[in-house]
Amino acid sequence: QVQLVESGGGLVQTGGSLRLSCAASGRTFSSYSMGWFRQTPGKEREFVAAIHWSGGTTYYADSVKGRFIISRDNAKNTGYLQMNSLKPEDTAVYYCAARYGVAVTTTRYAYWGQGTQVTVSS
């Protein structure tokens, strides 16, 4: 089992920045790839970014490419999502997720956090 806890969400103005954190406990975090997803009411959960367990490979949704940066610190069992140049359409609940093995851009992750709200005001 892997437990994930997100933090760092909040209210920010358009053009601002936030950094989300995902603290992992349980199994060896360094063996798990991590993803970030977001969801708004009435819509399906949407892929945002993912990082391979080694940190060597990253993936981004086109909508966030060039603005968001995913990273991880395996020594701290923590993953991050740096969000820059935020737009109102980035408003959502953001979830981190983990899976053993390679990172994927679908929701095929075994473990999920509880989510953190990000609101971008115009």
Explain what you see:
This protein has 122 residues and is mostly beta strands. It contains no helices and eleven strands. It has strands at residues 2-7, 10-13, 18-26, 32-39, 46-51, 58-60, 68-73, 78-83, 92-100, 111-112, 116-121. Strands 2, 4, 5, 6, 9, 10 and 11 form a seven-stranded mixed β-sheet that branches. A four-stranded antiparallel β-sheet has the order 1-3-8-7, with no helix packed on it. Strand 4 and strand 5 form a beta hairpin. The radius of gyration is 13 Å and the shape is globular. The protein starts with a strand and ends with a strand.
- Indicate the radius of gyration in whole angstroms: 13 Å
Average residue-wise pLDDT: 95
Q: Can you summarize the main beta sheet?
A: 7 strands, mixed
Report how far apart the termini are: 40 Å
Question: How many E-type strands?
Answer: 11
* Category by helix and strand content: mainly beta
Series of H and E elements: EEEEEEEEEEE
Q: How helical, in percent, are the residues?
A: under 10%
Strand content: over 45%
